[in-house]
Each structure stands twice: as structure tokens, then as C-alpha cells.
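USER: I would love a firmer grasp of how sequence relates to backbone shape in proteins. This is the protein in question:
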Amino acid sequence: MRSPPTIDTRRLGDPADDGQAKPEVTLDVVGFREAERRALKAVLAEMGRQLGVRFSFGGASSEVLVLEATQAMGMPLAARETLQAGRPLVLVMSAELVGGLRRAHDGRDLLNQLRRLPQVSARAA
């Protein structure tokens, strides 16, 4: 009895994926509702492909803090600095996630923030 043919699952993923593992950057995502987190995860997956890295959600030990911008504006500076704990900060407006970053402004601001992160520039090089 012949076994079924095997399928190279790498070809089923992103056509731009060359099968190489992408460097990972972990993000501590704070201040977003569940639906916003899902939308942010999808946007970050696309931006990660553009930047040559893979973003994953972690916790307080993550390398980068992603904070909802309107919450950051209302937060006392000392509280934000404690939350940030010396990590780079990326600000995202949750309203843009609900409306879709691509429609809002093509995500250029977020992409530029991510591109400037030392963790991205060092790993994407």
C-alpha cells in the first residue's frame, strides 16, 4: 500500500516566505480590547513581513511596549515610565484598529515606529 503524497506546507503560507525563520520581536500589548488585539495582531503580521521580522505578543518581559495611545495620554508620566520599564514604546490608536489601519492612513505611522525600533533594525539587517 502506497502512502499518500507529502505536501510542502511552506508553499501554502506567505508567497514571500522563503522558508527561513524570521527573527522574532516580542511585544507587551497594553490597553486594547480583545477585538482590537486581534486586529493589531493581523496588522503586525503584515508589517512584520514587510520588515523581515515576526512580531509575537508576550507579557511584561517583552522587548517592546505597545500602548494604546489615548490611554497613554491620560496616564501619569511616572506610571507610564514604570510600565515602560526602559523598553521602547510604540503608540497605537485603537480607533484606527477598529476602522482598519490601512484605510486610516495605510499604517505608515505604525510602520515607521516599528522600523525605528532597535530590535527590528538589528534583526532585519
Q: What stands out?
A: Confidence is low (pLDDT under 50) at residues 1-16. The chain is about 45% helix and 15% strand. The beta strands are 24-30, 54-57, 64-68, 89-92. The radius of gyration is 17 Å.
